[in-house]
């Protein structure tokens, strides 16, 4: 229990620093920017209570906001992601796919499940984030393409992270 | 009452979600008030010291380019000095015009910067203890960079030109017509100049400099050159695209401009609006 807590804490610090110092400086063809920090919410255990999920989403977003001078923008998007997570899990898994004490990781859940899971949540998060950031539906196609490209980038990074670090 | 409580308990997750979203929205919408809350921006001690550590590391890889920049600036200053010395020989009159004390310059280093957001900010490694104050202009070797809005003990931060919330008063160098320059959120190399009427003669390549009216920047600091312009039918002003002279993707050393008479000017101008 304590070990798990420590593990998640380290993951939080590493992801926030990675996002603030490296990923925020990546500009593929101008404006495509991956937001890998959502991985933290994706990987929380299945048993995490929903209210805790929401709080963690909110404060994770707020951390990123503090580092990128955008109070509220990431916080709202990550809260939205945390709110959707249980519904996404219900949608793609039958009752017996989820075993107790297994975290939602690629190695436990299989590639197909994990890809669908990441695809849904990352897309929702990025669309929310980019539209809240510009705060207008003017230039809809431009914002849409920015969020889709960034989402694709993030999804690739999430999948790679599963093969590199969380192999076990 | 009881059924209300039951209702709340049953949908507590949804209500918590709504509450957190409302808090986020308030944060976003009241942004300008929250700028003053130091905790929430990157001049606060924790995030600024992390950024400085990272900047200390990466600055080694840019030493060559920075050297070139400094050498070039040095050369420009040398030529200016030469001209002044020539002046000095001819005039033994009062030199108060040359030693103008309105503006003072403080060198600083950019420790955090972005170009890919809609609202981009720079964080600098100088703060209150180095004499930095709010509303000081930030100037790079190639022209205007931004303005300081937040100051902590050792750091300061503020919007760069690449921030849709900030505008700067600019003019066309050759004929002194002035307008306001802003970024439209797309390309970090280009900005827009507004409020230039149709009868003004323009040409691609005309130099755009600060007007000096905002009292944040001295007059005549380079901003960029006209890249293209056109007038839409029905509009009153030209649509002018400016190619910015500063490359925000590589900028690292800047100078902060302090206007020693800023307060006096603002107080004087406030008397006008009181009437």
UniProtKB/TrEMBL annotation, chain A:
Keyword set includes Electron transport: no
Keywords (A to Z) from UniProt: Cell membrane, Cell shape, Membrane, Transmembrane, Transmembrane helix
Protein location: Cell membrane
Membrane topology: Multi-pass membrane protein
Transmembrane segments: 5-22, 28-44, 51-67, 113-135, 147-166
GO biological process: one example: regulation of cell shape
InterPro entries with a match to the protein in the record: Cell_shape_determining_MreD
Cellular component annotations (GO), alphabetically ordered: plasma membrane
Lineage top rank: taxon: Bacteria
Coiled-coil ranges from the UniProt annotation: none
Family: Belongs to the MreD family.
Protein name listed in UniProt: Uncharacterized protein
Organism: Sunxiuqinia dokdonensis
Native organism taxonomy: Bacteria, Pseudomonadati, Bacteroidota, Bacteroidia, Marinilabiliales
Automatic annotation (TrEMBL), chain B:
Keyword Transmembrane appears in the UniProt entry: yes
GO cellular component, as recorded: plasma membrane
Pfam families for the chain: MreC (PF04085)
Stretches assigned to the Rod shape-determining protein MreC beta-barrel core domain: 110-257
GO BP terms: regulation of cell shape
Membrane spanning stretches: 7-29
UniProt keywords, alphabetically: Cell shape, Coiled coil, Membrane, Transmembrane, Transmembrane helix
Signal sequence interval, chain numbering: none
Coiled-coil residue windows: 60-87
Family, as annotated: Belongs to the MreC family.
UniProt cross-references to PANTHER family, sorted A to Z: CELL SHAPE-DETERMINING PROTEIN MREC
Protein name as annotated: Cell shape-determining protein MreC
